[in-house]
Amino acid sequence: MANKKITDVAAITSVLDSDALFVAQGGDIKQITFANALTYNLHNIPRKVHKDITAYFTDGSIWKRLNGTAPYTYLADIYVGDYFKMSRAITCPNSTDGTTGSQYVTILGFNSLKRNGDQDLNYNHMVCAPGMGLGGTQHFGRHRMNATNSTVGGYKSSEMNTAVLGAVVSAGSTASGATINQQLYAEFGSHLKTTRELVSNSINATGYNRFGTNNGCSNNWEWISAQAILMSEIEVYGSIVWSSSGYDTGNANHQFELFANSKEAINNRSAWYWLKDIASSWSWCFCNNGGYSYCYGASGTDHYVRPRFVLAA
Helices marked H in 31-96 — which ranges? Predict the structure, then answer.
């Protein structure tokens, strides 16, 4: 084999999981099985029928599967779109009309934020959001973005970020009025990770935006620490629609793998939910339950809260 010319190698039309590929790495030639080489990409493609993997969450094996820790291979039997049940539903504080949030979370992507942020997110992780695969309730309740129709202070200073999702926490709470971060930490403990996010922190009230008018746009950004955070238009749709400027997107510039493969995962008509992008001096972007993208006044109380968050071993 060592002396065989590449032109003399027989062609094949299929491979086995155990077949080896050879890779040049660190000045040496190494091998990897076909199955292992494809694991990352394959598991970021959803199954035809999404699986309830609550058993893996309950027995704790989900964390070993996420890292490929013995006796499990990397991402063993978990795929984007799979979902699991928490011990209780999570509902944002002061949810409009007492609307109850989801008790299930869905995996949006594996290692979707790898090497992201100003402090380098460099560990195996899964990005999750409320939902039950393509079904169920795709939100954690309903709440306004701000008390008035204003986007002054950007996403960073919004009521949604500061009081509903809340500050980064290292202790959980399920008490009445607990923030979403507190409730998530009560459920996942240290498996709930803190990420670094580049978010808008100010606006130009007379700047031009996607409406083609000068009624406001974001005009600066800042790195913040976050646990739960609203998604950007790009993370959901794969492109901007009504986002007022690049300051809205920051480092949230990657469409999550589940959404890239399923329109229904973006919205199954159970919620019209806020996104973190500013649309104007008075409105924020949202994902409509009818399948279209638009914006709404910041004080609107009937819109839903569907943040994403990172879990890891």
Answer: 34-43, 54-58, 61-67
Compute the chain's Rg from CA coordinates.
21
Q: Looking at residue 131, what DSSP letter applies?
A: S
Average pLDDT over residues 214-236: 99
The whole-angstrom separation of Cα 266 and Cα 221 is 26
Number of Cβ within a 10 Å radius of residue 107: 30
Token code pair at residue 132: 């039950």
Measured CA to CA, the distance from residue 149 to residue 85 in angstroms comes to: 36
Contacts with 120 (C-beta within 8 Å, 6 or more apart), sequence order: none
Under the banding of pLDDT at 50, 70 and 90, the label for residue 153 is very high
Q: Residues 7-37: pLDDT tens digits?
A: 777 888 766 667 787 878 778 888 877 666 6
* CB 87 within 8 Å of CB 54: no
pTM assigned to the model: 0.89
Q: Which helix (H) or strand (E) holds 39?
A: helix 34-43
CB 248 within 8 A of CB 200: yes
Query: How far apart are alpha carbons 84 and 115 in whole angstroms?
Result: 26
